Amino acid sequence: MTAVVQLQSHRSPDAEALSSAQHLLELARGKGVDDRRRLLLGIAALCDATPPGAEASPILGEIFMVIARQAERDIRKALSDSLAAAEWAPPALIAMLALDEIEIARPVIAQSPLLKDQDLLRVLVEATIEHQIEVARRPRISGRVADAIIDRGEPASLTALAGNKTAEVSEDALGRLVEQSRRVAALRAPLTRHPRLNDALATQLYQWVGQSLREAIGERFRVDESKLAEAIDAVVRPAPPAGAEPLGLDAAEVTDPEEMERRLVAKLQSAGQLRAGFLIRAVREKRLTLFEHGIAALGGFPITHIRAAIVRPSPDALFLACAAVGIDRAVFPAVLDEIRKLNGGWPGDGDEGYAGRMTLPPSAAMREFRALMGHIGS
After folding, report:
1. What is the DSSP letter of 355?
2. How far, CA to CA in Å, does 131 sit from each of 27, 103, 106, 174, 295?
3. What's the whole-model pTM score?
4. How confident is the chain (378 residues) per 10-residue block, as mean pLDDT?
5. Helix spans in 224-299 (H)
């Protein structure tokens, strides 16, 4: 029960007299505790007398603003509780309360019909993460506000938005949330239950969720491993340019298999066709040496550094090399599994810290890889 309601239950017979707007304004400017108590009694009476859909008088709006600026915390909290759902409250007061400390702001952020998009966007920019979470939880927030939450990329707010089934989240925005779930594990469970999740996004999400969530997705969308493999292949195997001829080498040119693969990589690179998708195909076709030469050429790394990376106790160095040349982070676990099958289980599975570095940009990954492998001769 709020402070205002508690005070209402002890209302004196002369409460009607206290509801005089001018008298309330005088009480609002008063400093004494008794003035505040009497003021709340008068406001409660005036609230009771306000018809549904009616607007508050300008003088009542002024009273409320005086209270908000000067009143103690418990009075601001009582006002927030009382006015959270009111349609007649002064909009400026509601906007002010939404930026107050979170316990005061929470009721109006969650309920007030007077908070418009610009007010909610201001809360996202100016207030704390707790305020931002409340905005993300607010029922029926607009696509504009949802996009702003996604743009900020704060994990807790993103997770709250993913669980808000009434928010106006477009297919594009939901796709961005699914993409964010690669680095924010807490997003995955609410996204599997999101009412706007479709087959394509479910297949994308399926790649990096655990077994129990995969089963949940499978129950809704019947995603199977063969479909997932096709989706990954479509991402990493771009169609060749129109009119392009397949690149290859005349077998008579050289007989050493590794040298053939090194020259093939050089020819692809000189033609501008050496890309991350080629490296992934090489691994899928079980051509580890071709992968090694390809990633070394594409990243400008010594081949010795690449070969050292794939025999390390952990896959971190290999992840950095792959991230540096643009291999999609979602595909890396599958690439890692294939390389381990081709390389006697190496790199090892110790300290798989790469999962927490999925957002590392290629330039930073390249610097870290060079620093990590710098002690190895070329």
Report:
1. G
2. 31, 9, 7, 22, 45
3. 0.52
4. 39 43 66 65 61 60 68 80 84 91 96 96 94 96 95 92 95 91 86 89 76 69 56 46 42 64 88 85 89 93 92 90 86 87 85 60 88 73
5. 225-236, 257-270, 276-284, 288-299
